[in-house]
Every structure is written in C-alpha cells, then in structure tokens.
TrEMBL record:
Domain Glycosyl hydrolase family 13 catalytic span(s) in chain numbering: 135-493
Family membership: Belongs to the glycosyl hydrolase 13 family.
Protein's UniProt keywords contain Hydrolase: yes
Protein name: Alpha-glycosidase
UniProt keyword annotations, A-Z: Glycosidase, Hydrolase
InterPro entries per the UniProt record, alphabetical: GH (IPR017853), GH13_cat_dom (IPR006047), Glyco_hydro_13_lg-like_dom (IPR004185), Glyco_hydro_b (IPR013780), Ig-like_fold (IPR013783), Malt_amylase-like_C (IPR032091), O16G_dom_2 (IPR045857)
Highest taxon above the source species: Bacteria
Entry coiled-coil feature ranges: none
Keyword Protein transport: no
Pfam families: Alpha-amylase, Alpha-amylase_N, Malt_amylase_C
Amino acid sequence: MLLEAVFHRPKMNWSYAVDRETIHLRIRTKRGDAKQITVVYGDKYRFDKLRDTAPMEKFASDQLFDYWQTAVKPPFRRLVYGFLLESENETIWFDEKGFAEDVSKNVNTYFNFPFLNAIDVHEPPAWVKDAVFYQIFPERFANGDPSNDPDNVEPWGGQPKYNNFFGGDLQGVIDHLDHLQELGINAIYFTPIFEATTNHKYDTTDYMKIDPHFGDVETMKRLVSDCHARGIRVMLDAVFNHSGGRFQPFLDVQEKGEASAYKDWFHIREFPVSVVDGVPTYDAFAFEPHMPKLNTEHPEVQAYLLKVARYWIEEIGIDGWRLDVANEVDHQFWREFRKTVKDANPEAYILGEIWHDSLMWLQGDQFDAVMNYLFTNAVLDFFTKDAMDSKQFADDIQALQAKYPQPITEVMFNLLDSHDTARLLHMCSDDKRRMKLAALFQLTYSGAPCIYYGDEIGLTGANDPDCRRCMEWDKDKQDSELFDFYKNLISLRKEHAALRTGSLKFLYAPSKEQVLVYERRDQQAVFVIAMNAAESNQSITFPLEQGRYEEVFTGEALSSDGTDASIELPAYGYTVYKKIS
C-alpha cells in the first residue's frame, strides 16, 4: 500500500459526532489499495476491558483516493482508536504515532476523540434535509401592488438592465403562492428585501425597514404567515459584509470625516473618503464605492447587526438567514451571530455564501451549510459544458461527499443557477433535455436543492442582468411540460427519503463517455438512475443487484439476475428505476 496516501486527523471531517451517542470515523487511502479496514477502538481508561472493533465501508472514491467510514458508539463518550489496513498481500497498523506492522498495545499512541460533549454536536436544522428551495428576486417575480411602484417603473417583461425597475413586490409573491405550492416548494430564499437604492437591494440603506417599493413590515408578516400556513419556510438575505452608500452611518462619515461618531464602523484608510483611480479610500465590496465594508469587529456594529438578526426572526418569524459575501466577514462575528440566531430560534437555518471549500465555517460554531458551488460547478461542467466525462464527474461528486461531515452534506444548499449566474436553460444552449438531466441529478442528490424562479416554466437568460428577467405569468407562454417534470420529480423526492439522505453509489461512470448510472438507497427503498448526457443514443450494460425494478414515470420493467442489466437511452435521455422486489 502507498502509505503516503493514507490520511486521518481527529475532528474536522475525519472524526465527528453525528449525534449525542455516535461518532463517524473516516480514513483516506490510495484508490484501489486497501481491500479491508478495521477500526480498533475503546475507552482510554479501561482499554484492556473496553475494546472493540468495527469494519469500515468505502463510501466514496475520487481520482486518487478511496474514502472509508464507520460509525461507533463509545460506551462512556470517550474514544481512542486506530486503523488496521489490509490489502491482498500486507497488513498495516496506523495510529497517531504512524505506521507499524502490528496493532499497538500502547493506548497513548492511538488517535483520540477526548469526549463527546453534547454542546459540541453540530446538529443542523432537520427540516432542511427535506427542503426544496425556490429563489425569488423580488423586483422581478410579480407586481402585486402597483401603488408602491417606483416612479420610473417600466412595463412588466421588458429587457432587464442593471438599473431599471419593473415593480415586483412582496404582495406579488403572496398572490402566487399557489404556484409554488403546486410545484411542491416548501422553502423560499429571498434576495434582499430591505430598503436600498438598487433593484437588487444588496446596498442596504436601512436593515430594519422593508424597501417601500416591496411593501412594509405588515406585508412581510402576512407573507411569512401565509407561507407557514402552506408549510413553506422563509429565508432572508443578510448583507452584513457591507452596507449601501446611503446607509446613514456612512453618510455621516462622508459629511463629517474623522469627526464622525461612525468613522470606526467602516475600514477607512484615508480621509476624506473618496475614490482614487477607481479604488475607494476605504474597504468596499469588489472596489464598489457604493458598498462600503462594515467593521464587524466594532462593538456598535456587532450590536446593530445582531439586533437585526434577532428582530426578523422573533418579530416576523423568518426561518433562516442567507449570509452574503460570508467569507470576508471575521469568524468571531459569525460565532456571535450564530449564538444570537439560535437563541432566537434553534431551528433557524444559517447559510453562508461561499464559493470555495468551506470546512472552516462548518465546525458547528458558525454556519449550518453553505451555497454548494462545488456541487454546482461539477454538475454544470458535466451536463451543460461537456467539460468532463462520466468518471471525472463521479470522482468530483464523491470527493465532495468526503469533504464535509455527512450531517452537513445533507443540508447543503445545492443550486444550479441564481441571480449571480446565467440561467440553467441558457447554459444548456436552450436545450431543455440537458436542463432536465442537470435538474434530475440535483433533485436526486443529498442536500437542499434550490430552483431559481422561472426555471420550472422555461425562463432563460444570459449573465446578469439578463438572468434577472421578469417572471412569465402568461400560461400560454409557460412551458407546462417542463413544469410537470419539476413537479413530478419534487414529489418523488419528497415521497422517498432514499433520494434525500440515502447512500450514493455510482454503478456505471466510465471514462471517455457521457453516460452515468447511480444508486440511491436506504432501508425503505432503492433507486437506480441512468442518464445519457451524449448527443447520440447509447446502449449500456452495468452491474445491478438481483431483483425486479420499475421505471417510476413509465412503469417499464427491468430485471437483474444479480450480475448485469442492459438498457438503452436516447440522446440526453434518462430513466429512474425503483426496486420493487
């Protein structure tokens, strides 16, 4: 075995508490090296009497490595452990000291999980595992109250620009909750709704006030109440990295300079505040002068923003916060934010906007999950860009499964497009067959899938601002067949936990091909899903356990004697089989 490839480290994503009794242990080995791994574990104070073994299961493989996992229940919440690695021709012992030929008799060299403290267990809100989110950009979803339209409002459905308005508001959302309920949505993510000057509202003027063009606090209360009555959760967007240029404390700094009582609310390098050669004399989001960065280390800034976080949960009843530009805010602020939010509602969902590896924010002291752009990138590369083959895609997805603890993977926010990207249909070159494949994988994978408003009826659009088109409410212009596809798939997902939290296994993912077969399984159900992301028909044979299977949408039968099964898939076609016996 290639010992240099073997890796384990206590805590993080390698040993963590799943609940108040159970610890997951993981280890990495070179792909194909180990045939069997056994954990030897016990209590360090009575290791001679409290010692046991547990087999490990290979749960994921990427380009270079295999990842193994097992679950153990330490009898007294203390745990020491080591790994016995076996290949076809050798056996190696691995513990904190390193490698040896035989199992160590010295308990002091074992890896150590000192104590399973209940307060340290990261238990994300259970409801998120079952959520199907729908992202709404309020200014473009529906105009339910023309009386609050901006003075320069344009006719609904016009060409979106960076600075134009069409009058979308919160009443428009209330008016169309039937649409979301019919689709099967049970959670909404709103981009910012607080007072701001732009159409996107990421330049907050007042964090305690609903933007007047969207409605008022009473409208928001009614919206949340109506959503909750339909079993729909509500998550708002918190822009705490930066404010808007019309935020009153920043206006005070602009007016008074160093004499301003708010000068330390921001990161100002030079007075008076100005812009020199396109760069503000203060820290700002992406050098945008209109978005000055807040100093979240300042006690008064912390107090103000934490007041905001608590108010909208306790007074309005929202169910979560999405945190904009979360990776540029200090970790300590997010720790205080979590304490505040969980005190207001322990079941509130805290979601960070981070586009890269996010493990440091997901240790149970900051976020419940992040926007899973690593998932997004893999799905888009395979299904829309032809940038990887089936094996590379399967490797990427399995590497992602090993990157975070399982409870976090189950509540990650899995999106394929948003207000920040081109629309999914556009990225599929307006070929909805490709779009369906991407959505099928999204809706049969662990985590909380999010549908960007309008995707379900065929709304397309290039990068911002084109991706922020007005929602199409004319039934004759909606793609009803696509709507039914999403509706049926969401219903299937909600009916079967195997598609949400079951195990994932790739049955067929060869290199230099665009065909994929994978299994989702739990104790109640087994699903086998096949996809052809190629532009030609494909006939494939793949290993399948013995049994009878039925295609969930067509009723077509498939049988296996326990060896292989063969199917044919049309270009950009798919099939979803459920084992029936």
